[in-house]
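Backbone-to-sequence.
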């Protein structure tokens, strides 16, 4: 009779797939073959969850789980009042009272790391529990007020500098902070490796530091409400940029027109409540633009209701795929086909829903964009911000026969 040691890897995978994480870890200790199956087949872990509030120094089980864990996609390290580990593979969250405490962890491998607070002295160091050589994306978030009794004092510019020095394969960086010194960022080395950069910072006042990543950057998203309009002309330096997102930015028609004329490789553009951009005909100047997503400033009008007669009969329209979500009401229209020389069939509906006629006139000009194929519009309808309803229109543009 064959024993358990004679089972093939395929049979072991089938058996192990039914086991909870602690039992799976115990199996890894049985033999070299079993260890190889548990640690070598990442799909075996997909969807498995594990939660504990016991630190690795206090629990042999916690240490064992972390040692056999395959590489993660997302690792989140956040400051909290109590220690906890939660993962639903391939994502894991560490809630720690002090980021210095993660030094007791076995080495963790991940592609993306999200961290709050000062991570220079522990995570971004030679003693780090994170495999910094494997890290490709880093997200740095400010510490929310009240999350910890004594939040650390740190400079996010130092975190950025250390990250670019310590993580040789870092290609994506996301920064969310109240203030950033553009002059300090201008002295940081390593920006030339970045392919994606996202910054949420109301206090940022310059973009000159972007010249350091002019040859590498492919995706840029900015949410910088205090940035002077003239600073956006710095985006012209990003000759290889393919995707650009501007959120609540004070960019004007003039600056955006100059940027689009210079970015010959731009394929996707998102303008989210950029209220100073009023002339969408400037988008005609981009010969490579294929995807556009617009969220227009709020327009006056009563919030939508699920029983609103204006929404009745939409499900019977064979040209639209419609879904309606409540609280607040979100109306989603998808797969609306539009001929290049025709008007979107959704425009009369949007007019009936109270969307500003001037906005609709501007949208109608987009059919003249030479390469535009996918368009997503978000109209906010309602006078009171908490009660606003959203009308999303996903449009596929097609050429005339």
């Amino acid at each position: 009779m064959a024993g358990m040691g004679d089972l093939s890897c395929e049979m072991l995978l089938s058996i192990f797939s039914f086991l909870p994480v602690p039992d799976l870890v115990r199996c890894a200790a049985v033999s070299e073959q079993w260890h190889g199956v548990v640690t070598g087949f990442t799909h075996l872990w997909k969807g498995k969850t594990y939660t504990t509030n016991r630190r690795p120094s206090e629990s042999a089980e916690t240490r064992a789980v972390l040692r056999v864990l395959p590489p993660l996609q997302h690792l989140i390290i956040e400051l909290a009042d109590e220690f906890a580990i939660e993962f639903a593979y391939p994502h894991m969250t560490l809630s720690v009272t002090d980021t210095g405490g993660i030094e007791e962890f076995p080495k963790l491998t991940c592609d993306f790391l999200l961290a709050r607070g000062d991570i220079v002295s522990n995570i971004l160091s030679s003693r780090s529990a994170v495999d910094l050589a494997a890290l490709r994306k880093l997200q740095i978030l400010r510490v929310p007020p009240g999350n910890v009794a004594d939040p650390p004092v740190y400079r996010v510019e130092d975190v950025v500098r250390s990250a670019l020095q310590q993580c040789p394969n870092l290609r994506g960086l996301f920064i969310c902070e109240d203030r950033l010194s553009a002059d300090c960022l201008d002295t940081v080395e390593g920006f030339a490796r970045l392919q994606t950069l996202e910054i949420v910072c109301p206090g940022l006042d310059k973009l000159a530091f972007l010249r350091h990543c002019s040859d590498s950057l492919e995706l840029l998203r900015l949410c910088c409400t205090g940035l002077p309009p003239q600073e956006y002309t710095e985006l012209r330096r990003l000759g290889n940029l393919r995707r650009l997102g501007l959120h609540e930015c004070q960019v004007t028609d003039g600056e955006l027109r100059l940027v689009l004329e210079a970015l010959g490789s731009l394929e996707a553009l998102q303008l989210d409540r950029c209220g100073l951009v009023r002339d969408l005909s400037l988008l005609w100047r981009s010969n490579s633009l294929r995807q556009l997503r617009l969220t227009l400033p709020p327009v006056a009008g009563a919030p939508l209701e699920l029983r609103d007669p204006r929404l009745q009969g939409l499900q019977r329209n064979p040209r639209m795929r419609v879904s309606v979500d409540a609280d607040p009401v979100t109306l989603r229209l998808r797969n609306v086909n539009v001929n290049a020389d025709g008007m979107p069939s959704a425009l009369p509906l949007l007019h009936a829903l109270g969307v500003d006629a001037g906005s609709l006139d501007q949208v109608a000009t987009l059919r003249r964009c030479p390469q535009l194929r996918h368009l997503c519009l978000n109209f906010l309808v309602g006078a009171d911000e908490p009660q606003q309803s959203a009308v999303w229109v996903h449009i596929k543009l097609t050429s005339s026969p």
